Every structure is written in C-alpha cells, then in structure tokens.
Amino acid sequence: MNRKLSTAELQRPSPQDFAHQAKLPVRVLLDNVRSLNNVGSVFRSSDAFLVEKIYLGGITAQPPHREIQKTALGATETVAWEHHKDTVALIRQLKAEGVEIIAVEQTEQSESLAQFTVHADRPVVFIIGNEVFGVSDALVELADRCVEVPQFGTKHSLNLSVCTGILLWTACHQLKKLS
To answer: What is the DSSP string of 79-110?
Structure first.
C-alpha cells in the first residue's frame, strides 16, 4: 500500500534556507500578463524549480496583492523579482549581459519543446506573453530563439501558467542532469 508523505517528510528548505540555496540560471519575464492568478502561479512554479528571478513587465501586477498571494502561497517572498515597465530595454540589457533570450511563442521558426535543449553555459530568460496577444512582436524580434509546447487538440495555446510550469520543469530537469 502506498502512503502520502507528510510535509515534514518532504524535507523542503525553509524560506530562509531557500534564500541562500543555489538557483538555476533560469529567469522568467511575464510580458503584460493580466491575470493575477497566473502571476501567482508562475511565482509558485518558479519556487519549485529554483528559478533565479522573475521580471514583471509592463502592466503585469506586482506583489503584494491578495489575488497573487492566493496562488503563490508565499513564493513571492522566496523568488527574487523586479518590475520593468520597458521590457524592450530590459531584454536589450539582458542580451548585452550574455543572457539567452527565449520567447515562448508559436512562430515560423519556433522549435518544439520536444527537441529543445537549454544551454548550460549561459543563463536563459523565458518570455511568457499576454493571455490574449502572446509575446509582443518587439520581444519576439529580439529573442535568440522561440520555443513552443507541442499540442494536439483544437485549442492553439495552453494557459500561460501551465505552459510556464512545463517549460520550467524541462529546463530544471535538463540542467540538473548536466550538473
């Protein structure tokens, strides 16, 4: 018979220990995300997969906010974040610092997540777009690569928090195997 583990048995780090824990060289930019629940969910997934930082871009809401906290469950206190009104300037700065820019978008040359590999030799930022309009055209043009999660049903996209969770698990899994 199988039994669920208790919270204590999971041996998760405390928020204080997590703050000093080595993070993966992975960052997320939320590009004009409207839903506060999506923002909170991305914080929670980012905590789970040791994301280095979240950038909240444009109109994306910032903590503290009750609706963000409802889904983040405290992850806004453990994951580093910054707000940037001008996301184009932010991406140009990150590119100059050697960060690989990956837009999560369906484009003519996007690669399937099934063939996607993270490069362990440089940090990466995944740009996650607005719920209706996706990643802005200006940011798609600045991206080094575009990646999409393959889908087989009638809908053309996943909820952005679900998509982000899949991407972060993939990147975390690949980077942990390399280390």
So the answer is: S-EEEES-HHHHHHHHHHTT-EEEEES--TTP
Give the single-character DSSP code of 134.
B
E-strand ranges in the chain read 24-31, 51-57, 81-84, 100-104, 111-112, 124-128, 145-148
CA dist., res. 14 & res. 20, Å (int): 10
The predicted-structure confidence for 46-75, as pLDDT tens digits, reads as follows 999 999 999 999 999 999 999 999 999 999
Give the count of beta carbons closer than 10 Å to the beta carbon of residue 38.
22
Under a CB-based contact definition with an 8 Å cutoff, are residues 42 and 161 in contact?
Answer: yes
Quote the distance between the C-alpha of residue 133 and its chain's center. 18
Does 22-149+157-178 carry CATH code 3.40.47.10? no
Q: With contact defined as beta carbons under 8 Å apart, do 47 and 75 qualify?
A: yes
Domain ranges within the chain, ordered by starting residue: 22-149+157-178
Q: What's the N-to-C CA distance of the chain in angstroms?
A: 34
Tokens of 41: 């969910």
Q: What is the pLDDT of residues 120-135, one digit of tens each?
A: 899 999 999 999 999 9
